[in-house]
Amino acid sequence: MTADFVLKKTPSIHVAALRWTGPYSERQIQRRFEEVEKWARTRGLRTGRWIFREPGSRVWDTAIEVRGTARSEGRVKVRTLPAGTVACVRFDPTVVSPRVVYHGLSDWLRWQRKEKKIRSVVSYREIYEGNPWKDKRAWSRTEVQFVVRT
């Protein structure tokens, strides 16, 4: 399996998201994703990619792409992640360790910055094509994206 780093443009993404503050917890992440999924299903919305991101220090977002018109309700907020440039890599976490991928991508971005190809790294996000706890295909095609300024 190869894991190659690429700079690419991404379109804006319309998502339903739950945000919380606290320590990193795999169980919390799964629970919040399932809550957003249930919220979208009860409103009859078509869903797409699952996005996990850290927009701030110890602040976490679990978001699911929604298609159709939706309004924020209760704890679930509907927002649009802006279009932009990302450095990304797609890999299978059962074959390549995520620590290796994150470390490699961080070093690659450091060199991109030194060579003046990017100005800075804004944030990161993990993108899955479905529920990574129930769908092996979604887990095996994990995509890590670092949002960058060019």
Question: Layout of SSEs?
Answer:
Blueprint: E1 6-10, E2 13-21, H1 26-42, E3 46-56, E4 59-67, E5 77-81, E6 84-91, H2 98-114, E7 120-128, H3 136-140, E8 142-149
Antiparallel strand pairs: 1-6, 2-4, 2-5, 3-4, 3-7, 6-8, 7-8
List keywords for this structure.
globular; alpha+beta; 8 strands; single chain; 150 residues; 3 helices
Can you tell me about this structure?
The protein is an alpha+beta fold. The protein is built from 3 helices and 8 strands, in the order E-E-H-E-E-E-E-H-E-H-E. It has an 8-stranded antiparallel β-sheet. The protein is globular, with a radius of gyration of 16 Å. It starts with 5 loop residues before the first strand and ends with a strand. 24% of the residues are buried. The model has no long low-confidence stretch (mean pLDDT 91).
Outline:
With 150 residues, the chain is an alpha+beta fold. The protein contains three helices and eight strands. It has an eight-stranded antiparallel sheet.
